[in-house]
Design goal:
There is one protein chain. This protein has about 100 residues and is of the alpha+beta class. It has a domain of about 70 residues: Alpha-Beta Plaits (2-Layer Sandwich). The chain has two helices and five strands. The chain starts with a strand and ends in a 15-residue tail after the last strand. This is DUF2007 domain-containing protein.
Length: about 100
Amino acid sequence: MKKVFAHENRLVATNIKNILEAHNIDVMLKNEFASSAIGEISPFDSWIELWVKDVNDYERAASIVANSTENTGKDWLCVDCGENNGAAFDFCWNCQSEPS
């Protein structure tokens, strides 16, 4: 087994786990319940870790994780209402116009 990802947020780690499993990569979570030990252990030691079970899948898994976690888009300014929109928005959140 080899660690491919770690994050403090359970939802983010679980989402990455689901993405990898959708690519037929067998993974497991570690430290899933370690947050209750914060104070006794370092907060970083309680982060949820995602491990690839077959090390032969590691390179492909690492590539998928990198592509899934990088922010490739750019924020954009709506030409209709002037509202600033994040890269994740396909339409203006304020007026529902499409970016131009």
